[in-house]
Amino acid sequence: MEMTARTREPSPTPADRAERILDPPQTAAERRAVRHKLEEPAPTTKVSVRNLNFYYGNNQALFDNNIDIPALRVTAVIGPSGCGKSTHIRVYNRIYELYRDHRATGEVWVDGRDILSPNTNLLELRKRVGMIFQRPTPFPMTIFENIAYGIRLHYRASRSEVSDRVAHALKLSALWDEVAEKLDEPATALSGGQQQRLCIARAIAVEPELILMDEPCSAIDPVATAKIEELIEVLKDDYTVVLVTHNMQQAARVSDFTAFFYKGYIVEFGPTVEIFQNPKEKRTQDYITGRFG
Prior knowledge:
Elements: H1 14-20, H2 28-39, E1 45-56, E2 59-70, E3 74-78, H3 85-90, E4 102-110, E5 113-114, H4 122-128, E6 129-132, H5 143-154, H6 159-172, H7 176-179, H8 192-204, E7 210-214, H9 222-235, E8 240-244, H10 248-254, E9 257-262, E10 265-271, H11 272-277, H12 282-288
Parallel strand pairs: 3-8, 3-9, 6-7, 7-8
Antiparallel strand pairs: 1-2, 1-4, 4-5, 9-10
């Protein structure tokens, strides 16, 4: 399908305003959509969610969520504050179980296994499903030990193997050149953007298959944000990425697919270009054109 810029009328319609979010018209997301359609087979499904409901005590936060997350793609999750975006992705590694009275019902299949099954090994699950939080969370230890910690926890590796894995993770997260000479210094001395890339390196060091990012750029500056976005583009060659973001321009720039959440429901899901340029649901169009949220 040929992607061309639309002629903008003096009085733009809501659909026209939605298109302006993808500015310039030939965005990276559009180019990826065309490339995938012409050159690549349809992606397989990495995560399949069926009838997912979530409760904080007696308060229900998610309602019958159903979605298939494509493998080796970036899926953005957008929607107004409090709509269930972060709650939804935190089910994927069952991190909610660290808190009392939080529970999920339904099914979440990762590579054909229902991770909500009571037989799920949570340590193994959280190795396979890494998570990056809104604010950087470096451990109170050296830069090297931040990365090495998970490697030692999950693998029997020699000292040289640990060092090699640490270096590889830092290089993949575009941080190696900035910290190679100070690996023994405290991680907390790094800048906010560096700390966030350190957390990404820590997650990928244990070789997960799925990386969850919960607004990873909301607490860092625009320069650091650009580095994280570049990193996301690289990571999807080897990892499935699910990105929660309030920044619709960011969703348009880095994602292949987008899910719009509203009041605990998944209103619409599809290729990012279609969601932003031709949404099927009025609520989606109203949100991306700024009518609410």
